Amino acid sequence: MDSTDYTEGIDFQKYWLVLKRHWLPASSVFALIVTLATYKAATADPVYEAQGKLLFKKQNTTSALVTDAGAKIGQLDTLTQFNNPLDTEAEVISSMPIVKETVEALNFRDDQGKFIPPGDFLSQLNVKKIEGTDVLMIAFKSQYPKEAADAVNKLMDVYINNNILVNRREATAAREFIMQQLPDTEETVRQAEAALRAFKEENSVVSLQDEATSAVISISNLDSEVIKAQAQYEDATARSQALQSQMGLNPQQALAINTLSQSAAIQQVLTEYQKVQDQLAVQRTRYQSQHPIITNLERREAALSDLLQERVAQVLGNNQAVDRRDLQIGELQQQLTADLVNAEVQRLGLGSNVSALVRAQGSYRDRANALPRLEQQQRDLQRQLDAAQSAYQILLRNLQEVRIAENQNVGNARVISYATLPVNPVAPNKKLLVAAGVVGGSMLYVLTAFLLELMDPSIKTAKELRMLFRYTLLGMIPATKKRFGFLGFSSRREIPLLPTRDQPTTYTSEAYRTLQANLKFISPDREIRIIVVTSAVSQEGKSTVAANLAVATAQLGRRVLLIDGDMRHSTQHQIWNLTNVAGLSDVIANQAKFNIAVREVMENLDVLPSGATPPNPLALIDSKRMASLLEEFRDNYEFIIIDTPPFLLVADALALGKMTDGLLLVTRPGIIDTASAGGAREILAQSGQNVLGLVVNGVSAGSEPDGAFQRVKAYHKGKYKDAAIKKVTVPSESSSDPSFPDWDR
């Protein structure tokens, strides 16, 4: 961004022009504020300020008997790290109860005999902390020195007494609270002890730590014993299986055979049974089967067999069938049977031992696995008991401490400096008041200027008009000023002058001549002979521009005709001091001859007034008769200028623009607004008008950001500073430009 763009973006010059444009009302506001500040400084009564200081302690340390609980009574603490306890105490000092008690103690009353409102007292009070210390400064302002000192001292005394009472009330409240909480806390301790005792009894807990150590050792020993017993069990099992394989008997059968072989009753019957069998075998060799001896022996054999079976059942305890050959065995077989029985007995015993060891091992492991949970439960119960006991002990200790603190007169602040009678007033600071008035007035000056600028919708500078219309700029006519009568109201109107005729050496005349020159060379392809001078709205000075342009052209020796085409509010006859008996309307209507209606006002310049006001001026303007008249004028004159009404109000100028060589648009800063300018440009574009260019009338050099116009004015003022100024005043009711030139300002 270059410097030009930067300046345009900030536009300081535009802001300066705004301040300059509204200098009169803004200066009035500035003067009013400064005057009020000066008056206040001159008439204000002297004000005295008395000061006292309070030192705050973080906690009570005046008594050695007060321990932790008592020390916390009145201790200066904050709720958050961003707060300062001194700020809180400052608010307490400024609270309504403290202030009201101070006012009543000092007997501060108003003119009606009533106590002054606390708000009035607070407006004179200032409580602030001294940075880096624990000290609060209390200041009070009054017109009377003694009143100021008494107010500060009494306020500090009231605050300290109130602080002591508050601390004692805090101690009392703490004692009552502790006494209320003690029974519940004691009951909580009992419940915690009972819960811990029930837990130990239910889980057979003596010392979980010792039990855990013992469990680890026992599990390790049991692991060794289980391994050893399992080895022995497997050895016994192997021996039993070997004996069973060798004898072809299972352990139950071996046990039964061994039992039967050792039973005397069975062996006795078995011996008798075998004898009878032997006898029967011998007798069968002698006798037939039906022989009585054979029959008797068979009967005896059967009886002994039943008896033997019965005794076997008695010995074995069941009706298990046993081979009689197994009832009587040899020594070797008997020994083997006894070994098998013993091996099976040993195996069963070892099996039972292994099972018992495994069960014991599982029991110890279950207990060991449950120990962490039991320890956690015991710790929770123990922690609850410890917390309850700790709370109970704290409450008992704090109860004793609070009882001590309750009987003490201790505050957390003390006076380190009482207020003395002030000697010199602290207010008013007259220089400061005046300076504040100047600063405030300056700010209001700026605010007033910009508010007026926002309230005024008109376009203020030629630069803005050029950017909005975007037509070729043909001329910039210097500004004129208005004269006002009493209280700002004008009792007469200043009629526009003809500086090109009456003050030819002024820079205003040069501006019109520059316009004439620019207009002459605007179109190199064809000569401009007939132009329409118009404006978007009224009061833009188009009639003045038309008249002075006609004079400037006539002064060059060209024959010029100036036509007043504004039949509604004609102005040219007033500018030239003519009568308006006959004019353009009469010529168009064939009610007057042109040579009678036209007037020669100066060499090479004729003026045709508007004439009588017709019912429908547009019908006359947009007629064939008007077109033919313009052709006749073109033959008789070198340059024709038609002064027309504003085209936003009536269509006369637009109709004439189609009959002529072009339209000259006159605008004036401060008169036309943005909406009107936009509408005018749109109408001109839609109607297809040949706009020759733009003339900015009433340009103030001091209000323009363009320095070129200011340099032109300075050049002419330096060269023609002694030029005479002639003013012509003619009473009028319809002048469109009530102003007079200010080229000599």
Automatic annotation (TrEMBL):
Transmembrane segments: none
The UniProt record lists the keyword Coiled coil: yes
GO molecular function, one term: identical protein binding
Cross-referenced Pfam families: AAA_31, GNVR
Top EC class for this record: transferase
Residues in Tyrosine-protein kinase G-rich domain copies: 375-451
Domain of life per record: Bacteria
Family membership noted in the UniProt record: Belongs to the CpsD/CapB family.
Annotated protein name in UniProt: non-specific protein-tyrosine kinase
GO cellular component, one term: plasma membrane
Native source organism of the sequence: Desertifilum tharense IPPAS B-1220
Alphabetical UniProt keywords: ATP-binding, Coiled coil, Kinase, Nucleotide-binding, Transferase, Tyrosine-protein kinase
Enzymatic reactions: L-tyrosyl-[protein] + ATP = O-phospho-L-tyrosyl-[protein] + ADP + H(+)
Coiled coil, from the record: 182-246, 371-405
Domain AAA: 530-656
